[in-house]
Design goal:
The complex is a heterodimer of chains A (178) and B (569). Chain A is of the alpha+beta class. Chain A has three helices and twelve strands, in the order H-E-E-E-E-E-H-E-E-E-E-E-E-E-H. Chain A has a five-stranded mixed sheet with strand order 8-1-2-12-11. In chain A, strands 3-6-7-5-4 form a five-stranded mixed sheet. A two-stranded antiparallel ribbon of chain A has the order 9-10. Chain A is elongated and about 85 Å long. The N and C termini of chain A lie far apart (82 Å). Helix content of chain B is 91%, strand content 0%. Chain B has nine helices and no strands. Classes of the chains: A alpha+beta (178), B mainly alpha (569). The interface between A and B is medium-sized, with 15 and 17 residues.
Chain lengths: 178, 569
């Protein structure tokens, strides 16, 4: 390798770095931001509003419930409370990779109703500028638009907690016909 | 004389010897007679002397009686006088008995007897009677008178008688000696004459016969007649000799004619015991057969000799060829000998190298023993390594468990950080700082997770490597076991090799010895071939000589044919 070429390359890098540092910060006031909890379902990135999430727990001691719809995976005992675990992939009709110990439960609470959403992985809480959230098309990755708040350019789907909690399918009243 | 000659020889002997014996017997009888006469004369002389002594004694007794008077002695003397008278009478009677043959002595004895009778009567009747009566003087007168003269006459007569008897005996002895001499000479002459006669009649003809037998013994058959004209044994012997001689001459004549080749003669045996005649007859018959056979044989011989001659010519040619072949073989044997010498040297070299190989294989055996020991040590080390690897595997398992725990803790930390972020978001503006801390915690948890993942991947690599090492150790252990087995096998092989090499060495030594013997043998063969060569050369010469000899036989056959033609059958 030619030494002059190496010198030229490092010179270009150093010049670029100097140009960026020389920029003056923007005078615009900081855009209003919302905080979302990001998780993945079938390799797709989804998010919930952090303010609406109670907490996140690891999936342990899942007890399946017979005579329930397939999206209701079962019940778990969290600190003495029974919490129903909803599988959004079943709920939304997404591909099913099965469940492991690595799954997490995102706990939601509304008016004494506490349910857990099964998530493949939980990425964490991040802040997103509201301007970046765009209305969702009719369906995104198989999820109906009625459950979606918006979509970021990074294909992060922000789900609507209220819509999910208010879904009539969650009210389960089934009999097992003898 | 002719009659004597015709007597048997035994009779002749008995006659001659009997004559001699008769002469000897006559001589003996004469001697006996003479001896008897001489003895009688001698006895008469003795008796006369004894009578004289008795007279003397008697006279002495009478005179003693005249002189003494003792009664006892006188009685004794009387008894003695009676005894003397009786003994004198006995002597006188004995003389009479003896002298019966001589008349002169007989008359003298009779004279003496007459006188003694008178004397005895006077003595007994007068003297002794008077003495008993004690008339000594009358007795003395009677005794000394006429009685004394009678006594003296009787003593002279007794002496004369004795002398006469002795003289007579001496005369008889001398006459007997001369008679013996004459008769002995006659007997000797008769014996000589008889001996000469017997010798002449027996030994003479036998001598002439002996001469004839000697001549016959040396083959000279006498042609003259041997007959003696006598009928005794000697004559018969002569006649038998003559017949034998004639027979022999006849046989000789026949033999002569046979010798001249005339086999047509015939012979009749003299008797059924004629051995020679029978033998001659069968000889002639056999000779006829033999000559006939001989004719045939000679014909065969002649043709055979021709064939032999041809064959010997061929034999000579083939002997020459054999000599050439033997010469070539001798050369070949010489080459073989050189080859055998070379092989002997090679065998010795092989023997030496086999000994070297034996020592090398011994070293190899020691080396494999050392290898086996080393392999055992390696096996122990491999077992130690395997144990270490197992321990390492267990420990990496433990590390994996620890990593899993750490991973779990990391997940929980991250979850806690997420929950903290959620709580901070709920707190709004007041929770901003807390949100930053929660973010930091989450970042740490993330880093921890990544580190754990790295540890896990490293641990996986370690486990893989450990498994590989365990496998490799296992394989190594197997390989070492195999190595031990193979080194044991190699040891055994080398052991067997040592044995084989030792045997090979012995075999090589034996081969060396054998090839040495072979060399000696080939030398002997070479010598033998030289001898054979000489012999075959001699064979060639002999074959040539045989050829000449066969030609000679052929000529001989021709000649024999001519000779056999000379025999007339």
């Amino acid at each position: 390798m030619n030494s002059s070429d190496g010198l030229d390359a490092s010179h270009v890098i150093l010049r670029e770095r100097a140009r960026r540092l020389a920029q003056r910060p923007s005078d615009k006031p900081l855009e209003e931001q919302i905080e979302v909890l990001e998780f993945t379902l079938a390799h797709e990135r989804y998010a919930l509003l952090a303010s609406q999430v109670n907490d996140v727990q690891p999936l342990r001691d899942l007890t399946p419930l017979p005579c329930t719809p397939s999206f209701l995976r079962g019940l778990v005992n969290l600190r003495g409370r029974l919490v129903a675990v909803i599988d959004l992939k079943q709920f939304f009709g997404l591909p099913e990779p099965g469940i492991t110990d690595l799954h997490r439960i995102v706990l939601l609470r509304r008016d004494e109703v506490e349910i857990g959403l099964l998530a493949d992985t939980v990425e964490g809480v991040s802040a997103i500028g509201k301007s970046r959230i765009q209305p969702a098309p009719s369906t995104v990755g198989g999820v109906a638009a009625e459950y979606i708040v918006g979509v970021t350019p990074e294909r992060l789907v922000i789900l609507d907690t209220d819509a999910i909690l208010n879904d009539p399918r969650l009210v389960i009243d089934e009999d097992v016909s003898s | 004389m002719n009659g004597f000659n015709n007597l048997k020889t035994g009779t002749k002997m008995v006659l001659g010897l009997g004559l001699i014996v008769a002469l000897l017997v006559l001589l003996g009888v004469m001697a006996q007679h003479a001896m008897e006469e001489i003895t009688q004369s001698r006895n008469v002389a003795v008796e006369a002397n004894a009578l004289e002594a008795s007279l003397n004694d008697d006279r002495a007794v009478v005179l003693t009686l005249l002189s003494i008077s003792d009664a006892t002695t006188r009685n004794n003397l009387f008894d003695e006088a009676g005894k003397n008278g009786r003994s004198a009478a006995a002597y006188l009677q004995g003389m009479r008995n003896l002298t019966q043959m001589e008349p002169e002595l007989e008359t003298m004895i009779a004279q003496f007897a007459d006188q003694y009778a008178v004397y005895a009567q006077v003595r007994d009747g007068q003297v002794l009677d008077l003495l008993r009566k004690g008339q000594v003087e009358a007795a003395r007168a009677t005794s000394l008178g006429e009685q004394n003269s009678r006594y003296l006459a009787m003593r002279d007569l007794a002496e004369k008688l004795s002398d006469r008897a002795l003289t007579l005996g001496t005369q008889q002895a001398s006459s007997a000696r001369s008679t013996f001499a004459v008769v002995g000479v006659l007997a000797l002459l008769a014996a000589i004459a008889i001996g000469w006669l017997l010798t002449r009649t027996i030994a003479g003809p036998l001598r002439s016969l002996t001469t004839a037998a000697e001549r016959i013994a040396i083959g000279d058959l006498p042609s003259e007649e041997l007959s003696l004209g006598r009928s005794d044994e000697v004559g018969l012997l002569h006649q038998a000799f003559g017949r034998m001689s004639r027979s022999l001459r006849q046989m000789a004549g026949i033999a002569h004619s046979i010798s001249e080749g005339d086999l047509r003669v015939s012979i009749e045996p003299q008797s059924e015991h004629d051995v020679l005649g029978k033998a001659f007859a069968s000889m002639i018959q056999n000779l006829r057969n033999l000559t006939a056979d001989l004719h045939e044989g000679i014909n065969v011989l002649s043709s055979s000799a021709s064939e032999i001659s041809t064959s010997t010519s061929e034999l000579a040619a083939s002997a020459t060829q054999t000599a050439v072949a033997v010469s070539e073989t001798t050369t070949t044997v010489e080459e073989v000998r050189q080859t055998a010498q070379m092989s002997s040297e090679k065998a010795r070299a092989v023997s030496d190298s086999a000994l070297r190989v034996a020592s090398i294989s011994e070293e190899g055996r020691k080396a494999t023993d050392d290898t086996a020991v080393g392999m055992a040590r390696i096996q122990q080390q491999m077992e130690l390594i395997a144990e270490s690897m197992v321990r390492l595997s267990e420990q990496s398992q433990a590390v994996g468990q620890i990593v899993a725990t750490v991973d779990d803790l990391t997940g929980q930390s991250k979850l806690l950080a997420v929950n903290a972020s959620i709580e901070a978001a709920k707190a709004g503006e007041h929770g901003k700082g807390f949100a930053v801390v929660a973010q930091e915690v989450k970042s740490l948890a993330e880093q921890s997770r990544q580190a754990t993942a790295q540890v896990r991947s490293i641990l996986g690599d370690i486990q893989q490597a450990t498994s590989a090492a365990v496998l490799a150790t296992e394989q190594g252990s197997h390989a070492v076991a195999e190595g031990v087995r193979q080194s044991t096998q190699a040891g055994q092989s080398i052991q067997a090799l040592t044995g084989s090499v030792s045997e090979a060495s012995q075999a090589a030594v034996q081969i060396a010895a054998s090839s040495q013997q072979q060399l000696v043998g080939v030398d002997q063969v070479a010598t033998a071939m030289e001898s054979i060569k000489l012999a075959s050369n001699q064979n060639v010469d002999s074959a040539k000589q045989m050829e000449a000899a066969a030609h000679g036989i052929k000529l001989l056959g021709e000649k024999l044919k001519q000779l056999a033609a000379g025999y007339r059958l």
